[in-house]
Each structure stands twice: as structure tokens, then as C-alpha cells.
Specification:
alpha/beta, six-stranded mixed beta sheet, binds adenosine-5'-diphosphate, disordered N terminus
């Protein structure tokens, strides 16, 4: 239910009460009782679609019905409510409610479930309560969650030059706090929010969401009061049972705590149970992981392939066996490390599992028996666990033991070394669940039969009472046939009338005394007897009480799991870490990746590097590996070559290899030495920001400007075809100025790959000492060219655009004409010239230009030694010279 809808993320209707709707005003005179109650619920949830349980249906009324019917694809009808008249109405069967909730959430709606909680007694209004208020960031229901992604709500608030962020997953109940200096509109905040991957954003009422965050996720505004510092602290203390925030280690981030307060308040409204057992806070330094902006994440195709088809980086890395492992892999990809030590420890785990193939095989087998423990525990905490969920926990306990056993074979010193110990269920839990649960479990506790025989004496007694009566009913047919002599007499059961004795009309006159008629059919009559009724009551009552007892026993088991939530959550985390390590080892082996050497120098050396996604698309043996060295002597590579030669692939593969290395994965290369990058910046391809009304060129320049402002000496910068969005001269000039700036600015001088089809830029290498030229090799045979995709030192001297046009299938006549025009242009305006400086009109001086004499004179002036009058005279003189 997530991600795909993110781009068009709607603003969820405000979560603060608004004026009541016109079709449901609060004049309750003449309302039916149910409508009166409904109005109260609706007034408390004006921003949600209220789903009201009426018997077997969930119904919507008034404006809610009008809004929901088209989203759900159901018919809009109306219903009379006594004197209140008719109201628009639509409904969905309760068994199918989940899929309809999903549709409403996907459409950006909030949903309040007003469910029946009391017993249904004929003639009395059943008790109803709002049991859940669902929104995209507040989902714990198994059927609504994507196994690969999390539901995460992120609250933001800016106070006096600091931004506090709290991110919360209601399933794991991990609350991550971040505090950064600045404003909501700062790029650092946007990058942080993208990293946190929210399914819902919470902001303060009246505070404008900056454009960088608009559309990131459905957004809910909350009253300022819930962000209040005092209230937030109270909420945190109440939720955790802690006396002081210092004890939680969160007293250093007071603004983020305010955001956390808002999240907890929102959980209350959503009816999410906060478990003191499970809830954990973590404070994160803003620079504890590699910062990646949204463009770079997209360009590196981390989660979705650009252009739609093909595997994403996550898919290529995924050989996980558990949903927890997959989610952790996604989280790791989302935040590569910048600490060489931590990266190396992760790599050591992969190394260990790669070498110990037998351990890996046993681990994979054990993990295969594991269910989504993390979310099963969450459902026990929320009181939503079904008998099958408990059964899954029982099975997972066994898988935990097997996993722990397999993991014991791992050497010390890796980051998964402690996992074997953490992988265990609370003592006796498996045995207790085994003793309680039947082999075949029903979907719902109310179906009965979830608890095994012998598990509970009370339940056994109730079942026995029921079965004696059932046995009597089973023998009744034969007994009555004998007694009455009616051979066609039948004992049956239906839901409306209960047990009955059916006698065909032909035998009607032989019906004995004591039979009272209950129902008339076409060819038969149905009767009941006092005896039959009595036994029926025993059966039904026993069944009802047995189910109630079963529900009680199951709730007890779920509560036991919930009480052990912390240790089970730790076990889930250990399982996830083991699963990610084995997944990366499995992929490294399958794809022939190598362990990168990680250091903190400033070298980037890759031998035989490949692009993980392009290689996979092309198939085995078809990708041409390439080398790269960037170090203190060679900081910038200017890569020239015709379009379609493989420049972009080379750039992206470099960034992908660095990214993979820093999440602690092996990399697609023969050999790699990677000194940790603090950030990766990519400016790739031309794309319009149509929604923002910006031209391709504007987008390109804005992204480039952001890179030049934010990059540091430890960053990796990938610039593909800068200046493409404007005229050639403009483009070349801007591209050159950008390279010069990166090279010369002391705070930059960062490792940079610069691809361009402007071969004029190859001259930069001759006067900037740390720039190297490289080109993609091309073989020419007559008018045909072949791209070898091999990167070699040196610059290209032409762009082969016409050749590429031919490859793309442009008709022959057009190609001939294009060649003529090109030849003419090259004669008239020799812009192409490889190492030759360009034409006069081009402000492309490679050596520093001779300064204008006025500038030289200005620079030489001794202002301190001049009177104001002398200065004014000098100014007039210079102006005259300049005007000449
Ligand atoms: P450019 O950026 O120079 O226009 P691309 O990097 O987009 O070119 O590459 C064009 C196509 O060439 C890719 O889609 C891919 O199929 C192929 N290609 C690129 N690099 C390689 C390589 N190293 N080995 C094999 N094929 C490659």
C-alpha cells in the first residue's frame, strides 16, 4: 500500500476537528438511536471516513458515503433514518473490509473503524466503539502491510533554528530521534526525511510544509498543542514509565522529543497500543550515515529501476529468507555507513558466511522456517493476533533454535557474532503454545477449534457437554423413525431455525403428538419438540461458552507473547542481521563479487568494475569490465565519448560500487579499494520538473549548484552531461567552470567523474594538474562504428552523433544530409579541435586570460594612501579608459 503512491502523496485531511458536515448536522432531534451515536463518532472523527459495523456490513453515511463509493467501486444508495430523513449510504461486507480499507488509504483517506464490541442481543442497540483510526503511517494490520517495507510515521517541528524529527514504526515501536540545526526547508532536512522513508508525515498546524517535502508522503497536520514540550515529555514518560528523559538518553534532543510527543499523541488517536516493553528510543547524530539526496537514490536505482522495468539494486542484493531480513537489507541500503570500522565488521560477516558454506546452507534452511516474527509480536501487542498468528509464533520458536544452532558455527569478531545468543524464544513459550494450540488452526478464534483437546479441563468439559447433546441429536433421527414408523423422517439444522425434524407432506397425518410446526416447505413440514429444543440449547450454549473459553486462552497466550516482546524483538533483530549477511554472501558468490578494502585515505581504485544492474540485464559475459583510479594526484576524470558508448553506465557503476561497499556488501569488481565517502552526489540525465514548472536546464543547474555548495573533500561527485540542456557554447562554458571550481576550491577538490560529449573539455587536463582524461573506445570501420564500452586513458576527438543516429535507425537520406551539414559547420567554425583552444567568440580561455589594463590598474591601487578626492579622480579616469 505504499511507495508507488508516494509521488502523488496527498495531504490527508487535517486531523484537527473542523466544522460539521452539512448533511449530518448536529440537530439530533428525531434521530434514530444509531444515527445519534453515529453523529457523535463522526463529530470526533471529522477528517476520517467512518466505517460503521451494522451486522455483516460496514456502512458509510452522508458525505463519507458520497466520497467513498467511487473509490471503493460500490453503489451509492440511501437509507431512511426516521424523522432525520434519508441519508446517502454505501457499504461493504465485513469479510472484505480489509481490501476496502486499503483502497481508501491508497486514495489518501483516513479510516475510522466503528465496530461492534458488545454482544448482539435482539432488540437492543449493540455496543460499538472506534477500535482503530487507520492512516498510512499507522498500520499494524497484517493484510495492509507490505512485507518488504515499513509503515512509518515521521513528525517534524522547527523551533528557534533547530529541526526536531521523530520517526516511529508502530509495529516495532522504535522511535528514532534526530535533531539538526536549521529550518524545515534546508536540504539536510529533506535528505533526512527521504532516508527515513516515511509513509506519513506529521506537521504542526499552521506551519507550511517546505516544497522539498511536499509530495514525499501523505501529510497530516496536528494541533500545535501536541508538539508542546511539557506535554511531549509527559507522554514520553508515561509511555516508557521512565522518571526522567535523561534515563532514556534523549534529554539532549529536546526539539525531537517534542516531535516524539506528537507521534505518541497521534498513536493514541489511532488506537495503537504503545507497549512499554517494546517501545525504544534511539538518538541519531545527523552525520552518522552517508547522506544521499533523493535524486541520487533514484539515479542509483536503489529501490526502483529508472524507466520502470528491470531489477533494482535492492532486488539484486536480495537473497534473504525472512521478511525481517528483507526489511533490514532495505534499511541498510537506505543508510550506508561512513565508519570504516563498522563497514569492515559487516564485511567480515559476509566473508565468514561466504567461506563457511556449510554454515550458510544450514542457516538458510533454518531461516526458511521462520515467519514474520517482528510483526507477529506486534499483533500480539496490539491484541490483533489470530490463532494462526500464534501458530506461526510456535513454529518460529523452533526455527529460532535451529537458526541459533547454525549461527554458532560463525567465527568471533564479525558483527553477527552475538546473534546466535539472541536467537532464542522465551523459556517454555514453544512448549506452552504447543500444548495449547491444535494442529489445524482456524482463521479466527470465533470459529472455534483453535485449542487442542486436553489443553484446558474447563474447555474439555464444555466440549463434552456439547458433544453428549450432539450425539443425542445424531441418534434422534433413527430413534424417531422407529418410534413414528416414518422412514423418510429427517433431523436437520439450519442457521435461522436451528435443529428441526422434517416430515414429507405425504406422511403428515402420522406426525405424533408433541411435534410443533416450525416451518412449511413446498413438499414437507419442519417440526420441533421440547426435547429437541433442550438439547439444541445445550449444544449451542456449550459451543458459545467453549468459544469464549478458547478466546480467553488464546488471549492469555498472546499476552504472554506481548510480555516477552522485548526479547522476541531482539531475536527478530538478530535473525534479520544473520539473514542480511547470508543474503550478501549468497549474492557475492553467485555474482562473483569481491570484498572491497575499506580505508580512510582518499583513494578510489577499482579493477574490473561492473554495473550490477546493467550486467544482469545484459546476461553473463556480455558486460565489459572497466578500471578506475581516483587518488590525491588524480581527483577528477573527464570522460568523453559518443552518446550510447557507456559513459553513464561507467559513472553509475562507480557510485553503485561505493554505495554497496559502504553498506557492507561485496562489490561487482575484480578488486576494489574504497576510502569512505561522506556523500555521493549524482547529477545524471536530463529530466524536467514539470510539476515544479522548471525547465530541464534549470533543474540541471539547481542540482549542480546544490552539489557545489554541499560537497566536501570526502565526497564522490558524479556529473553526467552537465550543460546539455542549453546551447553548445553555454554548455561547454558552464561545464568547464564547474570542473575548474571543483578542482580549485579547497573545500571541494573531491573525487569527481565528469562525463561529457563535449570533447572540447579534454583540454582541461592539460592545465588542471589533478584532472585526467578518459574516453570510451570506439572502433571505426568506414562509416560504421562499434562501441567497445572500454574506458581507456585520453580524450575523444569527435562526438559521432551522426553514427549514433544511424544506429538508432534514422533514415539514410537524413543521415547523408546531416553529414554534409556537419562537414560545413566544421569548416566554418572549428569548434572541434581536441586540444586546440576554441574560437575567439568563445569565452573559454584555458590559460588565464590577459586581464584588461583597467583591472590591472584597479588591483594595484593603494586605497589606504589616497584621499577621497584622489580616489574619485582615479575612478573617473578608469571609467573613461573602460569606455574606450
Ligand atoms: P552514454 O552515457 O555514453 O550515452 P550509456 O552508459 O547509457 O551510454 O550506455 C549505453 C548502453 O551501452 C547501455 O544501455 C548498455 O546496454 C551498453 N553498455 C554500457 N556500458 C557497457 C559495458 N561496460 N559493457 C557492455 N555494455 C555496456
Amino acid at each position: 500500500m505504499r511507495t508507488s503512491s508516494k509521488v502523488r502523496a496527498p495531504h490527508l485531511a487535517a486531523a484537527v476537528p473542523e466544522a460539521p458536515r452539512p448533511t449530518l448536522d448536529l440537530d439530533t432531534a428525531g434521530d434514530t438511536p444509531i444515527l445519534r451515536e453515529y453523529r457523535v463518532v463522526k463529530a470526533a472523527n471529522p477528517d476520517a471516513i467512518v466505517l460503521a459495523r451494522l451486522g455483516d456490513f460496514f456502512e458509510m453515511f452522508g458525505d463519507d458515503a458520497v466520497a467513498a463509493a467511487p473509490i471503493l467501486g460500490v453503489t451509492l444508495t440511501s437509507r431512511g433514518f426516521g424523522a432525520a430523513g434519508r441519508l446517502p449510504m454505501c457499504g461493504v461486507p465485513h469479510q472484505a473490509v480489509v481490501q476496502h480499507i486499503r483502497k481508501l488509504l491508497d486514495a489518501g483517506r483516513r479510516v475510522a473503524m466503528w465496530d461492534q464490541v458488545g454482544e448482539v442481543v435482539a432488540g437492543k442497540l449493540v455496543r460499538r466503539e472506534v477500535t482503530r483510526v487507520l492512516s498510512p503511517g499507522m498500520v499494524v494490520e497484517a493484510e495492509l502491510l507490505d512485507a518488504a517495507a515499513v509503515s512509518r510515521c515521521v513528525a517534524l517541528i522547527a523551533v528557534r533554528g533547530r529541526v526536531g524529527i521523530a520517526a516511529f514504526d508502530p509495529n516495532t515501536q522504535y522511535m528514532e530521534l534526530v535533531e539538526i540545526p536549521g529550518e524545515l526547508s534546508d536540504p539536510a532536512v529533506a535528505d533526512e526525511v527521504v532516508r527515513l522513508d516515511p509513509t506519513e508525515l506529521l506537521v504542526e498546524e499552521g506551519g507550511d510544509l517546505p516544497s522539498t517535502l511536499v509530495g514525499r508522503a501523505p501529510t497530516t497536520t496536528l494541533p500545535s498543542a501536541v508538539f508542546d514540550a511539557g506535554r511531549a515529555e509527559d507522554r514520553v514518560r508515561r509511555a516508557t514509565g521512565a522518571v526522567a528523559l535523561a534515563g532514556l538518553g534523549i534529554d539532549t534532543v529536546p526539539i525531537a522529543v517534542r516531535a516524539a510527543g506528537a507521534v505518541l499523541a497521534y498513536c493514541e488517536r489511532a488506537r495503537i497500543v504503545i507497549s512499554a516493553e517494546l517501545l525504544r528510543f534511539g538518538v541519531r547524530g545527523a552525520d552518522s550515515a552517508m547522506r544521499l539526496d533523493a535524486h541520487t537514490r533514484e539515479n542509483l536505482e536503489m529501490f526502483t529501476r529508472l524507466g520502470g522495468s528491470g531489477a533494482s539494486l535492492l532486488q539484486v542484493l536480495d537473497a534473504t529468507r525472512t521478511p525481517m531480513g528483507l526489511r533490514l537489507l532495505r534499511a541498510r541500503l537506505n543508510e550506508p555507513l561512513i565508519d570504516a570500522g563498522r563497514i569492515s565488521r559487516r564485511l567480515a560477516s559476509v566473508d565468514a558466511l561466504l567461506t563457511e558454506r556449510d554454515v550458510r546452507r544450514r542457516l538458510r534452511d533454518a531461516l526458511g522456517g521462520m515467519r514474520d516474527l517482528e510483526r507477529l509480536v506486534a499483533r500480539c501487542v496490539q491484541g490483533l493476533a489470530t490463532p494462526r498468528d500464534l501458530g506461526a509464533i510456535r513454529d518460529t520458536c523452533a526455527a529460532l533454535d535451529a537458526t541459533s544452532l547454525a549461527a554458532r558455527g560463525l567465527p568471533a569478531g564479525t558483527d553477527v557474532a552475538g546473534c546466535a545468543d539472541a536467537c532464542h524464544a522465551p523459556a517454555g513459550l514453544q512448549e506452552r503454545l504447543d500444548g495449547l494450540l491444535a494442529e489445524d488452526l482456524p482463521a479466527q478464534a470465533s470459529d472455534g477449534g483453535a485449542v487442542r483437546e486436553g489443553a484446558d479441563p474447563d474447555l474439555d468439559n464444555l466440549r463434552a457437554a456439547g458433544s453428549t447433546a450432539r450425539a443425542y441429536l445424531a441418534t434422534l433421527e433413527t430413534a424417531e423413525r422407529e418410534r413414528t414408523g416414518i422412514r423418510s423422517l429427517r433431523v436437520g439444522y439450519n442457521r435461522v431455525f436451528g435443529y428441526y425434524i422434517e416430515i414429507p407432506n405425504a406422511q403428515r397425518d402420522r406426525v405424533p403428538d408433541g411435534y410443533s410446526r416450525k416451518q412449511t416447505l413446498a413438499g414437507a413440514e419442519r417440526y420441533v419438540t421440547p426435547d429437541l429444543k433442550e438439547h439444541e440449547a445445550i449444544v449451542l450454549h456449550a459451543r458459545e461458552r467453549a468459544i469464549a473459553r478458547e478466546e480467553e486462552l488464546l488471549a492469555g497466550a498472546a499476552a504472554e507473547v506481548a510480555a516477552a516482546a522485548r526479547s522476541l524483538a531482539d531475536a527478530s533483530a538478530a535473525v534479520a542481521a544473520l539473514d542480511v549477511a547470508q543474503s550478501l554472501a549468497t549474492i557475492a558468490e553467485e555474482q562473483h563479487w569481491v570484498r572491497p578494502a575499506i580505508d580512510t585515505s582518499s583513494t578510489l581504485r577499482i579493477v574490473g568494475g561492473r554495473h550490477p544492474l546493467v550486467e544482469r540485464t545484459l546476461g553473463p559475459g556480455r558486460f565489459v569490465p572497466n578500471d578506475l583510479t581516483l587518488d590525491d594526484d588524480a581527483r577528477i576524470v573527464v570522460l568523453t565519448g559518443p552518446n550510447m558508448a557507456g559513459k553513464s553506465t561507467y559513472l553509475r557503476q562507480t557510485a553503485s560500487i561505493v554505495l554497496l561497499a559502504q553498506i557492507g556488501s561485496y562489490v561487482p569488481a575484480q578488486e576494489a579499494t574504497i576510502s569512505v565517502c561522506d556523500r555521493i552526489f549524482t547529477r545524471i540525465g536530463a529530466h524536467d520538473d514539470l510539476s515544479g514548472g522548471l525547465s530541464t536546464f534549470m533543474v540541471e543547474m539547481a542540482e549542480t549548484a546544490a552539489i557545489l555548495r554541499q560537497a566536501t573533500g570526502q565526497s564522490l561527485v558524479i556529473l553526467d552531461e552537465i550543460g546539455r540542456g542549453t546551447s553548445t557554447y553555454d554548455g561547454v562554458s558552464i561545464a568547464q567552470a564547474v570542473v575548474e571550481h571543483i578542482h580549485d576550491a579547497p573545500q571541494l577538490n573531491c573525487r569527481t567523474l565528469f562525463a561529457t560529449h563535449f570533447h572540447e573539455l579534454t583540454v582541461l587536463a592539460s592545465h588542471l594538474p589533478r584532472v585526467r582524461n578518459a574516453r570510451v573506445e570506439v572502433v571505426e570501420e568506414g562509416s560504421d562504428i562499434t562501441f567497445l564500452h572500454r574506458i581507456v586513458p585520453g580524450g575523444a576527438d569527435r562526438s559521432y552523433g551522426v553514427h549514433v543516429a544511424k544506429l538508432a535507425g534514422i533514415p539514410g537520406g537524413v543521415l547523408i544530409r546531416a553529414r554534409q551539414l556537419l562537414a560545413e559547420q566544421e569548416r566554418n567554425r572549428p569548434l572541434t579541435g581536441g586540444a586546440e583552444p576554441a574560437t575567439d567568440q568563445l569565452v573559454l580561455s584555458i590559460a588565464d586570460p590577459e586581464p584588461h589594463p583597467v583591472v590591472s590598474e584597479l588591483a594595484a591601487l593603494d586605497l589606504d594612501g589616497m584621499t577621497p578626492i584622489a580616489a574619485l579622480n582615479k575612478l573617473a579616469e578608469l571609467r573613461e579608459q573602460a569606455a574606450r
